Amino acid sequence: MRVGRYELKLEPRPSPGPVYAVLAAVMAIVLALALSSVLFLPADTDLFSAYRAVFSYAFFNPRGIVATVQRSIYLLLCTYAFLVPLRAGLWNIGLPGQVFGGALAAFAIPFLAPALPPWLAIVLMVAAAAVAGGGVGAFAGYLRARLQVNEILVTMMLNSILFWLVAYMIKEGGLFMGETAEGEGFSLAASLQAPMLLGVPFTALLALAAAVVLDLLFAKSALGYRIRAFGENPAAARYGGILPVRISVLVFFLGGAFAGLAAYHNFAAIPGVYKIPGNYGFYGDLAFYGIISALIARGSALGAVPIAILFAGLSLGARFAQGMLGLPFGVDYALLGLLMMTFVGSHILYQFRIVRRRIPVEDAAAPAKLPEG
Amino acid sequence: MWDLLARSLEASTIFLFAALGELVDQRSGVLNVGLEGLMLFGGTAAFITAQTTGSYPLGFLAGLAVGGLLGLAHAFFSITMRGDQVVSGMGIWILSFGLTTYIGSAYTGPLGLERIQPIFGLSPFVLVSFVLVAATWFVLFRTSVGLAIRSAGENPAAAEASGIPVTTVRYLCVIFGGVMAGLAGATYSLSYNPVWTYNFLMGWGFISLALVFFSMWNPWILLAGATMFGIMWQLSLSPELVLPGVLSRYVWRMVPFAVTIPILVVISTSWFRTRWGLAKPEALGRPYVKG
Amino acid sequence: MHGAEPLLAARRITKRFPGVLALDHVDLEVGSGEIHAVLGQNGAGKTTLMNILFGLVAPDAGALYLRGRHVSFGSPHDALVQGIGMVHQTRRLVSAHTVMENIVLGHPRARGVLNLRRARREVEALCTRYGITVDLRARVWQLSEGERQWVEIVKALYRGVAILILDEPTSALTPPEVESLLAGLRAIVADQGVTVLLVTHKLPIVMAVSNRVTVLRSGRVVARLRTADTTQETVVKHMVGREVMFRTAESAGRLGSPVLEIDDVSAYNDKGLLALWGVSLSLREGEIVGVAGVTGNGQEELAQVLAGLRPAASGTVRFEGRDVTHRSPLERWQMGIGYVPAERTEVASIGAFSLVENTTLNYHFDRAFIRSGLLDEAGLGRLTERILSSYSVKAPNAHVPAQHLSGGNLQKLILGRVLSRRPRLLIAHLPTQGLDVEAAAFVRATLLEARANGAAVLLISEDLDEILALSDRVAPIYEGRFGGILPRAEADPETVGAMMAGLHTNAGAG
Full-prediction pTM beyond 0.90? Predict the structure, then answer.
């Protein structure tokens, strides 16, 4: 585009620094929040009160804070589930399927072995959730690496399959059906409920420790290097002796395992739940917040912590405000969509910059003397 | 039985519309994995418009327009900005999934208009879809426009050097893909199952995407694949018609998705690829940089 | 040019790329019906100038005149409409399409429903006139490189271009193919009155066909000469700016034990076709064997099989006596096989990674640089610094992304990285392709040094001069087979050139 004697052009930013990453992340979130004011238009109250309702419930109301913490852990684990394969350049949108798989496996332990000592049962439940989630993930990872089967399609198909599998297990006489037969899974015995540390489930510790370990893994370790190299340039990674199948299966297993842990946390560790609820599908949808927080955090697990907490609070607060302000259903879903949109927008600004260049004026210098043949 | 077949064919039509648009899209070299999102948004817009105005034509128009606009957004991001096409596609899907849930929730429930009348017992869209398959095949493989589209998807540098405006061609194809996805969504929400619920598609868009890979980018194979899936989908919804009392209905619901995975695996094997040749557009998913 | 108005003129064309002044006030005049050569070394700006004439690149300053009228091209389409066609150095053909589809692509008369039958008759007539034999129904990927080039030329002629730009048309051709190309060009110019702009860095070709020469050096025109009035030596002086001579390296003389033994190895290419047909070769320590051939004759498959990146369909590969046919790339790196692939940016390096991280690509498995699972960053940093200084890689520091390096510097980094592992076997595929003269000379010297240090080197190149300058033995390759394995003394350019074209084959393996 020409403006006067200058030319405006969009050029790829040579190597965007960390400042830009943070800036782009903050911009995406702020913009999404600003855009979501449109969502509050149907409310009977002014915008300011609407935002206040969202934030005060999520971060200042005693009940709200507890719920925010619980949900943050869930979203954070889902974030890792997407983030680990992303570092290898692979898209794990199978979070719901892996969550469902993890949930079924966790509840299979008390179902199959009700007589186990509680501590062992809890350990086995955590392990089973991680292994099952990981297994669902690794299946897609293996197909991707061995046969170049599109991982987005496979994980999406698995989401639907496991969604119906859960319905089969907990509804209409399924094996895991609860006593009330209202389309819910059975409840955990009190002795099998996850132990609490300072009022939050022990899974919180797991989630925070994983953030540190993951960032260290990617920044410092040989394995992390291999994953990143594979993500940046699979051909170069292969040339350098990195085994594509191993990396692909590994990252999908790890990712799926985190989703499995998220399922354990959400269904077996949150006070007042302790079962696979009838609206388990909603938690599958909620897992997609993990995709956005990993994308906005640009693959940094620690960076994703504040983002996941914010999203947890926002999605809860929005649900709360929706009831209070008489808004249509799905404010939390709308926010998810807006965040994705502003992320894609900020992604552009992150990778490009606007360059202003003076259009050179043709100089009238005589051409140099040259030998003539 | 005839009823089941007619319903199956109408279901196939929806797969076919979406996949046909995506096929043209991919033939020009652009991948849009957000197909499900385009269909959701198109279907919701069509539903709301038709219910508010009481007019089917306006409803379809809204569906096509919204699909086309989202296609334009994808084209801008992936062609002009040379962004990652998967990021953009996934973005469009999640955006549509989130926003339609909110926008549509006030309209949850049946459409409340008189149903679109079948012709000879078949949905009129079935006929439209046959015509579109034939037309798409003809344009792609028998005209200069089709040659330009296929070249843009195979080797954009060669196309540009031959005087083909690659960017324009790709833009038009991606917008066409969006319009077709909007049509698919509108056919679902206005004719096939005119009841709005949140996330009403539940994977139709992703199956359509898989169908494009399965078709090896050939409209006729796509027609066969879509018909097969239409029948399978309809059977999974009402298995009691064929096999009463066998297995839970929830297990049947898994079938179309469970069948898709082995199909994807088979067409990805080197045995299959060397046998059928690589029909995949060479430049699929890669942004084109001039020069 | 005195008196007569030039057909095409470029005046004071300037083009700047980030960090480089590619063209600096370049003037070019092309007369009607001549073969005009634009000569210069790699990086002289020839291709940029041609891309400007063809509308692919917009100049920062300067103007184009066609038959005296000012023209400006926003895209190749504009240039084609004005009768300017271009055959690029890298083929601009859709390989999945048939030859006919490629020829009519973008043709102004092929609008709407395609009538390929009528077009085919016209193209066939054109081909017959110049003795071109290409199967118009074949798919482009099935053709040889020489045939593809003809397809592009026919395509331009079928469009009725008045000016045909050929960018390095001989770079991928065997010597006999070059001969027939030049004969064809003369016929076309004589018969159709087409003007040809021939861009090349190969002097003999210029001397053989051109009427006039414009010599470019570092983005400037340094000479305009009439071919008939000048000598090869004069042109070289203009092109290089000083005397540069190729020095044939003395062989080390003392050959050690066999390092690599390839026995009857076959391999498939990505399309599932057999690309390597039972080749055998042995390589001793302190020896360079040059595999000479035009790209696409199985060299890539050979290199990949040796590096473990492609399975061998049959046969065995032995390294220092051990069978490594089924060993992974990782195991081969650890054993001491080093590979420098042809694709510098696509395979051999990761653009977004820093130079240290790129060094790590060959060290992430090395126990000397791993402490309890963590990479020894300080050690890798020092190693990278050492590579940068001993291979004179020009880079601000070891932490800039590799994509900021020029091709030559990147190649020196890659070569340095691979050689720092002290491999017993080095496979170097097109190691100097696209490099400027200095960098290419450095790379060649490095290969000789590796040989002197006792490594066995398999040099795979298209550049016959390079092969003859460096190799102790020469193995010309054609369609996946060695035409023979010649000691350097028997490998004269004519014999090797003929073998590269598959003209005669000696039985025997080394």
Answer: no
